[in-house]
Amino acid sequence: MRKDYSKIAFGGGCHWCTEAVFLSLKGVDRVEQGYVASIGDHHDFSEAVIVHFNATKITIETLLKVHLYTHKSTSDHSMRSKYRSAVYVYDETQQLEALKNIKALQKEFNNQLITKVLPFGSFKLSREEIQNYYYKDPKKPFCENFINPKLKILLRQFSKQVDLEKLKSISL
Length: 172
What we know:
The protein is of the alpha+beta class and about 170 residues long. About 30% of the residues lie in helices and about 20% in strands. The protein contains 5 helices and 6 strands. Strand 4, helix 3 and strand 5 (about 115-120) form a beta-alpha-beta unit. Helix 1 crosses helix 5 and helix 2 packs across helix 3 (about 90-105). It starts with a strand and ends in a 15-residue tail after the last helix. The mean pLDDT is about 95.
């Protein structure tokens, strides 16, 4: 991996949605969709993505903010074991940055953020036929009903970070 490239993992909602959100950002090189496990109490696998990004084009702070706004980061619903709201970090520097940013961003949310910052443990890649789910066929009902609303949030709140060419078919 080049020196200016880094990676961090995010879990929150369906990994098809999370993958599409991060693939739509400038500075994101690629997204691996699958299941991430941490260690200790969170050693079980949960839907998530690994985001490979150019740190000179997009910051962890921006990635984290996008993540918090595009999934139910304040809802401790019954599906949290399958859809853990988490940032999976690869080192102590990422951990400190993620914790600092979540604390600072809390003031933008009416309810308590439940997103955990966890050490990355292991990863299982999704099967090939569901990878790049949105961009293979954005007209699928799931894409139109569940992914497009998240992409509209990107367009409204993060337009400077969005690769507008990728989302030209979405109207606000």
